[in-house]
Amino acid sequence: MPTTAPAFADATASDTALRRFLHGLPGVDPVGLEARAASLGTRSIKTTAKAYAIDLAISMIDLTTLEGADTPGKVRALAAKAVRPDPTDRGTPTTAAVCVYPDMVATAKAALQGSDVKVASVATAFPAGRAALDVKLADVRDAVAAGADEIDMVIDRGAFLAGRYLKVYEEIRAVKEASGAARLKVIFETGELSTYDNIRRASWLGMLAGADFIKTSTGKVAVNATPSNTLLMLEAVRDFREQTGVQVGVKPAGGIRTSKDAIKFLVLVNETVGEDWLDNHWFRFGASSLLNDLLMQRQKLATGRYSGPDYVTVD
Question: Residues 168-184: what's their mean pLDDT?
Fold first, then answer.
């Protein structure tokens, strides 16, 4: 379980110390970052390696429904799909998790009973995070009590952008404690952080506070996961492990819709942090429509024919 490493204890002793540490991190070269992300995105993966990558990507998906119109029936259907993504092929991997609002956790938990698929729940007044801390913590405790294996929390972007880093740090710590044994994914909403430097600072802040995962986005804003912001976060978890020995996962979410997109992200993982992160314990995709495209590409590799969207369920 990640905790603030002794080497960085002084960095979190006060708001001033934390600000000094975060603003002392190396600045990001935007041109270099984007060029490297683009270059890695041109890698070509064929045949056996592509089949492996597709199955790996399926196993890394947090199959998600986060709509006001969610019903128990919709959640049960999503859970069934997570357990058996392709009913015609029992060799298809299960997804990593089903992600729902806290009030749907019990429904998802019951539907997934007996499977290895986890139940993840967004909490802390998702997606805006505009609520008092006691409300956020109650949200988390309700989800955990209902059976959530994982909590996806949103940071207070207003506090972060105002430079109130210790407030954000202490809130993550409080949510981590309220999560108990559930793994904690900390969502930055990178599209609202404006700069790569801010994304790097948020990554380190989340890891110092005990995040099990750092996550790009809620999927509810215009700019979500991109190769560049995910590459930057992968570099952060790599450097954090080198300095502390603590491994933290990464979850890009929102806007990843095709097998080609997913494979580009897997290449980023392999080339930046290596095989230790090529596992759904350490890397996830926050997505729904992505699974259908992965299934269609998987069917094409197996049969030589492209089945089309009518051969997969509409979530």
Answer: 98
Q: Tell me whether residue 97 is exposed, middle or buried, using C-beta atoms within 10 angstroms of its C-beta: 0 to 12, 13 to 18, 19 or more.
A: buried
Place 2 in a pLDDT band, splitting at 50, 70 and 90.
Answer: very low
134 is catalytic: no
Rounded Cα distance, 289 and 295, in Å: 10
Between strands 97-100 and 213-215, the pairing is unpaired
- Buried (b) or exposed (e) across 269-280, using 16+ Cβ within 10 A? beebbeeebeeb
User: Does the pTM of the predicted model rise above 0.85?
Assistant: yes
DSSP 193: T
The single residue of 251, 261, 264, 293 carrying the catalytic annotation is 251
Residue type, 141: R
The catalytic position among 62, 139, 149, 152 is 152
| Distance (Å) of CA 61 to CA 74, 164, 178, 208, 253 | 18, 33, 25, 26, 10
Catalytic residue among 215, 261, 264, 293: 215
Contact call for residues 284 and 249 (beta carbons, < 8 A): yes
Cα separation, 253 vs 187, in Å, equals 9
Please, which pLDDT band fits residue 86 given cuts at 50, 70 and 90? very high
- For the question of residue 152 being annotated catalytic, the response is yes
pLDDT tens per residue, range 131-171: 999 999 999 999 999 999 999 999 999 999 999 999 999 99
What three-state secondary structure class fits 272? Answer: helix
55 is catalytic: no
d(CA 58, CA 291) in angstroms, rounded, equals 6
User: Directed axis angle between helix 227-244 and helix 259-272, to 10°?
Assistant: 30
